[in-house]
Every structure is written in structure tokens, then in C-alpha cells.
């Protein structure tokens, strides 16, 4: 059996372990500490820093393929692992587009993929540049760190060229953060397209989903996206498969999309299992985690057929009371069919610590079931 | 989070790990070696002998509850673990009925549960006893070791009181094996009833399945049992729930049944996740492994609702060529929706090394899909 190495010890590696167990494929993870989400459930967990070249090379030795549970492994390190003879999927060239938002925008624009208007913010005179950009595209602006953001971190909305914006930009400049700016797109809603691509070149697309965000964090995913017309859904799938192909992605590619009056625009890319795909564990014939393993192992991809008319995934965020287990009794008794996933993470207010999934025929009912379970696991009786 | 300890490192513990990961419940296993099926995929695997009292007590220390992936832990040891303050589910008193076929038969008969005619074979003059039993019930006879059997081991069919039978009984007597005899039931087919019971007393029953055996090994499970009338299905569920209740089972109880012209008869009991329940991983809203965890943790039980009109599970047995992974490509390309489960075990001819599951509407088609995948994983092109 080939050994799959996954750099990163978060919940994505943790859930990949469930799929690896089924396939009989040994999974090795590189985790920052033995207390990491994935390290708690993987027999072959190596402790180290996945940003350190030495740790990464030591980890990769003996793996048949290396993949990632996040975007933070430096590209040059990935290239060195490949040169040591262990293929990385995705490779450094493809992953660059998920690591650097400016690289991604430039490439997608060159490919003719619709994106919001954007520009690099020059480190000299950034405020004047922002003002000029706003004159063309209007306020508010979306200011982003080109690298290193996640879950709304590294993204700021500037309403005007006021003192707040000036101070923020000044602070980021001092910290050496490279910035870009984008038009604030007046979208109807956010969608996500999840596809897989294997080294052989096979592609597979999941149904398009709607993602609901609060404060930059995804709270809910509805599969399939309600009321989305077939043409737009097919367009979104084609767009994602095309991007995967053009960028040479191997493994999963999640494309976050804005649905606007004028069509679809790409927001972000991720090349790994993605929060918008957790619903596939129960809601699709092949979970995104199994699909990612199949893709990075260059096995034929699995069926993306949904298992129910609608599936709703709700993220469980940490509340004030860390004893989530105590609240299992109510959630499980209230709804014996809701599926609970907890990531083995310390509970901190607002932190993603798990998710729940409900499936069924009636979207309103399914959505209410998922929300109730997620809210209850967070708040208990408090918020009822 | 409570720690669940599972004694035994086989595939049942391995698949329990997948469910434990989702629930965020730390699973600790006691495995004979680091190469055991479950030890390969559980971070907290302790290596030891689950028949040794010292190893068992050391293992149980720090667990909130202890359960089992087989029936071979001696009852007195389980009692000592309980006396050390760690509850065992099932407890020694209940488990005795799955460990000793004579204890089981005596108890079920006392409860009025229909069983085949049976008797203990007295160690003195066993052959005369078998002859007398056959005079009453007819040949062939089923001779069983009262303890220690599994997968057809410990069960013999005697066609007549010939030299073969005399030699076998003589050999078993010499080895000190305690024997019982049963009427060979002319059954139509074999069924299995899988139920869960929690310490609180909640019960949950899965749909009744048909099990297909070859040479004492289950090769295929069809859920629900095709053509089974509703009354008989309900009777089988009631029977299993009643037995679980009467015996004080906590966790899962699998009841293997004969369907005969005159109704249902109990064949065997198992108090753990069971081969006849592997279909529930994809085919039921709550897998048997999650259900077992919920039951032993005294959490509310999960929905046993099927996720598809029919599900077929086929066991993958070892063939001549140990490189099963090489055959993944064909199986996955041929049927992107079939689910493959491999147990990380060394391949030996005839050994259960995994299973596959197919789901759908048309039983013949689903059955053919499951069989094709299982056969191909065993034989490759050879048997096509």
C-alpha cells in the first residue's frame, strides 16, 4: 500500500484519516504537536514544523506522495521534496495559485476566468493608490494580504479613506504585509464549486453548493445550492474543472464564487479538502476526503452523486462552555439522524471545532435541523 | 471527552475508529501487536494480550468504559476490570451468552426464544450420546465447541456415526474441548437481526438482513432481506430487542437466525459490531460502529433508517496475489460508486481482508456490482 503523507495536523487531515482507513491506505501526518486535531487520531503522526525544510524532508522520506491540509508550506520547500523523489500533489507550481491571491488573480485573468476588478497595492503611497482605485470602482474596497490569510483573516473592508483605513494600511505596511485591493462585489450570494483532478487528467465535479458566511467564517453550506438554474450550475462546474486543468491541479480544488447580477466571479481558490465540501461525507457517494486521496494516488475518481435531495452542513463554533460532550445527549435525542463531527480541538469562543450534517427532502426542515444541532452544541440551552 | 477502550485490535476496532473520529471520542485499543488491523490506525494503541488480566487492567486504567471487538476476553477478567471502577459494556454476565454457546442455548430456551434442538455432549461416552441424539433428531448433526469458535471454526457437521466422526470427537476429547450437539436445521436461508441497547435501556433495531455463507464464512449480506414479509421482519427485530433486554446487553447485539418452514430459530449471538452490519457504514443513517459507541457511552441511539432501497455488502477474501492495491484501478474505474474497505491485514488465501458495499434501487444490479468488486479484489482477471 502506498503511504500518503499530509503536511498539517488540522481537521482536514483528521477527516482524511477516516477515508484512508476505509481504503486501507496508510496516512502519515506532519503535525505541530501531539495535541493537534489529526495527531490525536493517526497512528503515524510525526511531530514537526511543516514550514521547516528539514522537518518536511524528513517527513516526506518513505512517503509515496505528499499532500497538504493547508496552504502554508513554502513553495521552494515543496520543490525540494519533489526533487528528493517524492511527488507532491498539488505541486508547488499549482499550489502557488492558492498561496498567493495576486498570483491567482493574474493567472485567472490571463485565462479569461471572471474575477472582481483588482490591483496590487504599491508599497509606496498605498493610500493614494487606494483612492484612485476607489474612484474607478467605488467604495467600499476589499483590501487583502496577498499571502497567509484564512477564515476571513487577512481580509479587510475599507468603507472610505478615513482615519481607520489609513491606520490599518499604515500598520500592515509596517508589518511588511504585501497588499492587494479588490472591488467590493455586490453579490447575491456565495457559491462553491468543488472538483477533483488526478495526475492522469481525470476530473470530477460535485454539485454546486451555497455557502453562508458570518463575519468571514463559513457557518452553513447547502447542497445543492437552492434555486440555482442548471445552466449556471453547469457553468460553475466547467469553470472549476477548467481552472483545475489549466493550473495542473492534482487533488481537490475548491473554487469560492460570487453569484452576481452579471454572472459568476471567482473569489478564492483552495487546493485541498474544503469546508464547503464537508457535506459530502454523508451527502455524496464519495466524500471529498476519499476523493482527495484517490486523486493524489492517481486512482480513478469516485462518484460525486448526492445521496439525498438536500444536505445542509453547519459549522459548530466554540461557545463559552468548553464541555461540548455534555450537550451530545440533547442533540442526539432531539434528532437521531443528525450527524455530529467534532475535531478534538480545544474550545475557544468562535473557533471552528466541528460540524453537523443533516439530510432529507425538505430544505427548510433539513436546514433547521442542522442549525439547531450546531447552535445547541455551541450554546446549550442559553440561546433557545 | 470520555475515553472508550476496546479490547482487541481487529477490523471491528479499526472501523470503530472511523466513528470515534467523527464523534470526537478518543478510542484506545488493546492490540496484540503494532501490526494489527486497528493498531495501524489508532493513535492510542496499547500493545498487550487481552486475555491477560494484568494487561487488561493496565489498559482499562484511564478508560471511561471498556468494550470488545471479540468474545475472547475471559469473564472473570472483565469482572475485575469492573471492580476496578471501569464499566465494561457488555458486562461479563451478558457477554457470557456470546462466549459460551451452551450457556446461550440454556438461557434462550428458558426465555422461550426458539432455538434448534441441542444438548451438551457428556465427556464420557460422547459417541453413544450423539447416536441417541441422532435417533431423536436425525442425521446430520451439528457438533460445536461450546467456547472459542468463530467464522465456522469450532463447528463441525457429522453426517453419520462413521470413522471420521469418531476420530474427530476423539481428537477434540483429547484436546479437552467441551462439546455440544445440535439438530441440523433445514433452513431456507440465514438472516441476521442487529440491535443496540444502552445502559439507560433504549433499544434500536436495524432492518433485518439476509446473510449468505460459504464454508462457514459470510460472503454476502443483503439489506433488507429480500422478500421478507413485514411480520417476520418485525418478529425478528422484537426477538433481538427482547434478547438484548433479557440478557442486559449494552452495546450491539447481533442475532444470527435461521429462517425455516416453521419460523425463525436463533443460531448464534454476538455482542459487538458484526460482519452482518458492515453495510450500515453507507447503508444506514447511523453505522453500527457509531451505534456501538453511542450505546456503550449511554448516549441516545442513532437512527437506523436505511439510506437506499437496497444495500449489498460482499466480503473480500484473500487470493493468491497479495497486491490487492494493484487491483483498485480496475474496481474503481469499473464502478465509481462502489465503496471499498480494506482492513490493513496481510493477505492469506481465504482470509477476510476487507469488504465492499454497493447501494441502489435494483437488487440484482447492486448485488452484481458488489460481487464483481469483491471477486476482482480477490482474483483480478483470473476469475473473469
UniProtKB/TrEMBL annotation, chains A, B:
Transmembrane segments: none annotated. One of its GO terms (molecular function) is 5-(carboxyamino)imidazole ribonucleotide synthase activity. The keyword GTP-binding does not apply. Its EC number is 6.3.4.18. ATP binds at residues 101, 144, 182-185, 190, 267-268. Keywords: ATP-binding, Ligase, Nucleotide-binding, Purine biosynthesis. Pathway: Purine metabolism; IMP biosynthesis via de novo pathway; 5-amino-1-(5-phospho-D-ribosyl)imidazole-4-carboxylate from 5-amino-1-(5-phospho-D-ribosyl)imidazole (N5-CAIR route): step 1/2. The keyword Ribonucleoprotein does not apply. It holds the Pfam family RS_preATP-grasp-like. Gene3D superfamilies: 3.40.50.20, ATP-grasp fold, A domain, ATP-grasp fold, B domain. It catalyses: 5-amino-1-(5-phospho-beta-D-ribosyl)imidazole + hydrogencarbonate + ATP = 5-carboxyamino-1-(5-phospho-D-ribosyl)imidazole + ADP + phosphate + 2 H(+). Residues 105-297 form the ATP-grasp domain. Signal peptide: none annotated. Belongs to the PurK/PurT family. PANTHER family: PHOSPHORIBOSYLAMINOIMIDAZOLE CARBOXYLASE, PURINE BIOSYNTHESIS PROTEIN 6/7, PUR6/7. Homodimer. This is N5-carboxyaminoimidazole ribonucleotide synthase. The lineage of its organism: Bacteria, Bacillati, Actinomycetota, Actinomycetes, Streptosporangiales.
Amino acid at each position: 500500500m502506498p503511504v500518503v503523507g499530509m503536511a498539517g495536523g488540522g481537521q482536514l487531515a483528521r477527516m482524511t484519516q477516516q477515508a484512508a482507513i476505509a481504503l486501507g491506505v496508510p496516512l502519515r501526518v506532519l503535525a505541530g504537536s501531539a495535541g493537534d486535531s489529526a495527531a490525536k487520531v493517526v497512528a503515524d503522526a510525526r511531530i514537526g514544523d511543516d514550514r521547516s525544510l528539514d522537518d518536511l524532508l524528513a517527513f516526506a522520506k518513505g512517503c509515496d506522495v505528499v499532500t497538504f491540509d493547508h496552504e502554508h508550506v513554502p513553495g521552494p520547500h515543496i520543490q525540494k521534496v519533489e526533487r528528493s523523489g517524492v511527488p507532491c500533489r498539488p505541486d508547488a507550481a499549482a499550489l502557488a495559485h492558492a498561496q498567493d491571491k495576486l498570483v491567482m488573480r493574474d493567472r485567472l485573468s490571463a485565462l479569461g476566468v471572471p474575477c472582481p476588478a483588482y490591483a496590487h497595492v504599491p508599497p509606496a503611497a498605498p493610500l493614494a493608490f487606494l483612492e484612485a482605485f476607489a474612484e474607478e470602482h467605488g467604495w467600499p474596497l476589499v483590501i487583502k494580504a496577498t499571502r497567509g490569510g484564512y477564515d476571513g483573516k487577512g481580509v479587510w473592508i475599507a468603507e472610505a479613506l478615513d482615519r481607520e483605513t489609513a491606520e490599518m494600511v499604515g500598520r500592515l505596511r509596517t508589518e511588511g504585509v504585501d497588499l492587494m485591493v479588490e472591488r467590493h462585489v455586490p453579490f447575491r450570494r456565495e457559491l462553491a464549486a468543488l472538483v477533483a483532478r488526478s495526475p492522469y487528467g481525470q476530473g470530477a465535479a460535485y454539485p454546486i453548493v451555497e455557502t453562508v458566511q458570518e463575519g468571514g467564517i463559513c457557518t452553513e453550506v447547502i447542497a445543492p445550492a437552492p434555486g440555482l438554474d442548471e445552466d449556471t450550475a453547469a457553468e460553475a462546474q466547467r469553470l472549476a474543472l477548467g481552472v483545475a486543468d489549466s493550473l495542473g491541479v492534482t487533488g481537490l480544488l475548491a473554487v469560492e464564487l460570487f453569484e452576481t447580477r452579471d454572472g459568476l466571479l471567482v473569489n478564492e481558490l483552495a487546493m485541498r479538502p474544503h469546508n464547503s465540501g464537508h457535506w459530502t461525507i454523508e451527502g455524496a457517494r464519495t466524500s471529498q476526503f476519499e476523493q482527495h486521496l484517490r486523486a493524489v494516488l492517481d486512482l480513478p475518481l469516485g462518484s460525486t452523486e448526492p445521496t439525498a435531495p438536500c444536505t445542509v452542513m453547519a459549522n459548530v463554533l466554540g461557545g463559552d462552555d468548553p464541555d461540548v460532550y455534555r450537550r451530545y445527549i440533547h442533540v442526539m435525542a432531539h434528532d437521531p439522524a443528525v450527524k455530529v463531527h467534532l475535531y478534538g480541538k480545544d474550545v475557544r469562543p468562535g473557533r471552528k471545532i466541528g460540524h453537523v450534517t443533516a439530510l432529507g427532502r425538505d430544505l427548510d426542515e433539513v436546514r433547521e435541523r442542522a442549525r439547531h444541532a450546531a447552535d445547541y452544541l455551541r450554546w446549550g440551552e442559553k440561546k433557545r
